[in-house]
């Protein structure tokens, strides 16, 4: 773990060289510790796969003071349980109607569509980072049997709620946008709503499970086809 300068009023903490569930749990614990002990001088905290950007108020603290406090907040994080973070369950309408790439993933893995759906639901996925668009949570890691490379030509329009796979990551598109991930279903849960508090159902460090629902339940929960 190391702390480096990231700007006039920012430091970045590197927890490891690569992401993992354990590293993600450490980052989330660090966020909680920093907010509890340094809230008076923190402007924003931006967690990522294996790092945490700390932006502070220069009128309230200088670089040396913030770095000293950071070191204190980062103590005793190495032994944290990888099961830390809230568990969020997201419903998904899996089908060839809602997931146009399901059959391709099944064929590539020599699986049935039903097996792809079952495999995708079997794991808990860690929210490693949120980016690309508000509410777009990068979740990992999917089973190798259903991992799939990004599309050679991205779609110009991916629907809101599309559940997708790219390499060994999975995600839910929070809004209509271009995208090059493989689509396997639709989730009726809004991943970003600026009028709600909190505005997103998940945050970095949380765990996500997907649960299959049928077409009628999807529509009843506000999903759109």
Give an overview of the whole structure.
It is built from five helices and 13 strands. The protein has 225 residues and is an alpha+beta fold. It folds into two domains: 2-73, Gyrase A, domain 2; 87-220, Cyclophilin. The chain has a seven-stranded mixed β-barrel. A four-stranded antiparallel β-sheet has the order 1-2-4-3, with helices on one face. It has a two-stranded antiparallel ribbon with strand order 8-11. Helix 1 crosses helix 2. The longest helix has 18 residues, at 21-38. It is elongated and about 55 Å long.
A few lines on this structure:
With 225 residues, this protein is an alpha+beta fold. It has 2 domains: 2-73, Gyrase A, domain 2 (2-Layer Sandwich), CATH 3.30.1360.40; 87-220, Cyclophilin, CATH 2.40.100.
The CATH C-level class name of the largest domain: Mainly Beta
Strand order across the biggest sheet? 5-12-9-10-7-6-13
Question: Any idea of the CATH topology of the largest domain?
Answer: Cyclophilin
- Portion of residues in beta strands equals 25-35%
The average pLDDT score comes to 91
Helix coverage percent: 10-25%
How many distinct folded domains? 2
The main sheet comes to: 7 strands, mixed, barrel
Structural class: alpha+beta
**Name of the CATH superfamily of the largest domain:** Cyclophilin-like
Rg is 19 Å
Order of helices and strands: EEHEEHEHHEEEEEEEEH
Q: What is the distance, rounded to the nearest whole angstrom, between the alpha carbons of the first and last residues?
A: 46 Å
Tally the helices.
Answer: 5
What is the tally of beta strands? Answer: 13
| Low-confidence parts | none
- The global form is elongated
Oligomeric grouping of the chains: single chain
């Amino acid at each position: 773990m190391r702390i480096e300068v990231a700007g006039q009023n920012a430091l970045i903490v590197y927890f490891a060289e690569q992401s993992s569930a354990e590293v993600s749990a450490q980052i989330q614990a660090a966020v909680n510790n920093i907010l509890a002990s340094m809230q008076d001088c923190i402007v924003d905290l931006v967690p990522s796969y294996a790092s945490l950007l700390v932006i502070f108020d220069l009128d309230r603290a200088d670089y040396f003071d913030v770095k000293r406090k950071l070191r204190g907040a980062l103590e005793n994080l190495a032994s944290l349980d990888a099961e830390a973070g809230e568990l969020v369950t997201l419903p998904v309408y899996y089908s060839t109607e809602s997931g146009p790439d399901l059959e391709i993933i099944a064929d590539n893995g020599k699986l049935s569509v039903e097996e792809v759906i079952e495999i995708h639901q079997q794991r808990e996925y860690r929210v490693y980072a949120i980016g690309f668009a508000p509410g777009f949570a990068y979740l990992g890691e999917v089973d190798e049997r259903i991992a799939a490379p990004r599309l050679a030509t991205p779609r110009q329009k991916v629907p809101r709620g599309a559940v997708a796979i790219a390499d060994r990551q999975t995600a839910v598109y929070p809004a209509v946008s271009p995208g090059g991930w493989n689509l396997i279903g639709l989730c009726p849960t809004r991943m970003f709503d600026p009028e709600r508090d909190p505005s997103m159902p998940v945050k970095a460090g949380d765990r996500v499970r997907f649960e299959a629902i049928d077409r009628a339940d999807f529509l009843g929960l506000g999903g759109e086809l």
